[in-house]
């Protein structure tokens, strides 16, 4: 890969140097993908990338390069937070979706209770958990939002929450 003087790796091409046979960048930054090294070089610098790769065992270098490329793209997109900003955004989105799921499951439970007043046990979908018709206490994961109580009263059932 790196020994072929006709096809230097993306790193050596960008840095305008001869691609040596033992070029540390050649296996990870092929000549056909110059943007990959350019973005990583812009954010971290060739010297730092080289140090990182040299300090890692060979079997971990591919994953390290993938992480560096991801972080470099994230840093260009969001210079302050980088990939942490993207992770935070996704975590918030997951939390919102979990809350929506809990509300939907509570509504399903309420509808099941209204249609099955004569049945003593209600099954919560996807959990196998059973509730008797007297307590209607929902597990914490179904009502994972601020509330003084996770108990549904008979009045709230009849009013539809």
Automatic annotation (TrEMBL):
PANTHER family on file: LOB DOMAIN-CONTAINING PROTEIN 12 (PTHR31301:SF15), LOB DOMAIN-CONTAINING PROTEIN 4-RELATED (PTHR31301)
Pfam families found in the cross-reference section: LOB
Family designation: Belongs to the LOB domain-containing protein family.
Name listed for the protein in its UniProt record: LOB domain-containing protein
Family matches, as PROSITE patterns: LOB
Domain LOB: 7-108
InterPro entries, sorted: LOB
